[in-house]
Specification:
With 333 residues, the protein is α/β, with parallel strands linked by helices. The protein contains eleven helices and 13 strands. Helix content is 43%, strand content 19%. It is globular, with a radius of gyration of 20 Å.
Length: 333
């Protein structure tokens, strides 16, 4: 299974952490390169999971060593930043109400947003503020989302999938700058397929369930990942993809639900949606034939499918990765 790459913060909420431990090999997040800042930003629980090989701190600040505009693959990000800068010129004011660790984004990205008037270095008189950058909320989400997508698209040593619990972070990076200017994508709701322990469940109990029912959870995730990969590859024939995998998805879901019922934990089903980008198709090309029939198959195994438009990625070497949005406050009934 790929690694869940949480963004925009360093520390994921408990429910996302538990989701990662159950349905992914491990979890990662983008961290500051500065060791002193890292120590304060990464929680004790994450450090303990790191010792067990289940958490991976990711440093991306050193990925850009020349001006951002020199990296042709970053053109979509540069264009988005310039569009934001243009929107804050004149009578509009850039409200810098959020912060970024400077060593989290690196000096190249830092210089780019400062030069565009989208960020301000905070004074070094305060020990912690001297390592921070004041930005608007939109710039913060765009940059960290872009870094997560960058890792997912270009890293070969480990397979990362961007995952967030903040709709604004999800949409800020994925939403195309103008209607019709993006790429087509499937949007799949998986919440009923992947239940989560109740928020007050100890992480130790989740780890125990992970180990005891490894076969059931790995089978369910393998079937889910195969479905998403096939929807991306065979985007012109979604009905065939769902029909071919219906039995395996149904059986793996039933086996996993049996394991859930046998546990002594309380479980909830939250909304978890994944965007599956199709690199060569405009959104109008994604037409689900006989929508009611396909929806019937999807509903029988616990998910729904629709279409959407997304922003082109920074680098296209590996195509557009999957991107997840977890609504920690939206319970499915």
């Amino acid at each position: 299974m790929p690694t869940l790459l949480y963004y925009p913060l360093v520390k994921p909420p408990k429910e996302v952490l538990h989701q990662a431990l159950l349905y992914w090999d491990d979890i990662a997040s983008v961290v500051p390169e500065d060791p002193a800042v890292y120590e304060g930003a990464v929680s004790t629980e994450l450090k303990e999971l790191k010792d067990r090989g289940l958490y991976h701190p990711v440093v991306v600040a050193d990925r850009f060593t020349s001006p951002l505009q020199d990296h042709y693959q970053c053109a979509p990000l540069v264009a988005a930043l310039r569009e934001l800068a243009a929107g804050t010129s004149g009578s509009q004011v850039c409200v810098m109400d959020s912060f970024l660790f400077r060593s989290k984004v690196g000096y190249v990205l830092e210089n780019a947003i400062v030069d565009l008037g989208l960020g301000r270095r905070l004074g070094a008189s305060a020990a912690t503020w001297g390592r921070s950058l004041a930005v608007s909320r939109e710039v913060q989400l765009l940059l960290v989302g872009a870094l997560a997508q960058e890792m997912a698209c270009t890293t070969t040593a480990r397979s990362y999938t961007p995952y967030t619990d903040q709709p604004s972070a999800y949409e800020t990076f994925l939403r195309p700058s103008r209607p019709g200017g993006g790429l087509g994508a499937w949007r799949v709701e998986l919440g009923r397929l992947l239940p989560t322990p109740a928020p007050d469940t100890p992480t130790s109990a989740v780890l125990a369930f992970r180990e005891k029912h490894a076969a059931e959870r790995e089978r369910l995730m393998a079937a889910t990942q195969t479905m998403l990969s096939n929807l991306r590859r065979d985007w012109e024939h979604p009905a065939d993809v769902l029909r071919a995998l219906q039995r395996e998805l149904t059986q793996s879901r039933e086996d996993y639900e049996s394991a859930v019922r046998s546990s002594r934990m309380a479980w909830v089903s939250r909304s978890v949606s994944v965007t599956v980008g199709v690199a060569t198709a405009a959104v109008g090309a994604l037409v689900v034939p006989d929508l009611s029939w396909v929806a019937g198959i999807a509903g029988s195994v616990g998910f729904n499918i629709a279409t959407r438009e997304i922003r082109p990625v920074m680098r296209a070497r590996r195509g557009h990765p999957f991107s997840y949005l977890h609504h920690v406050e939206r319970e499915l009934v």
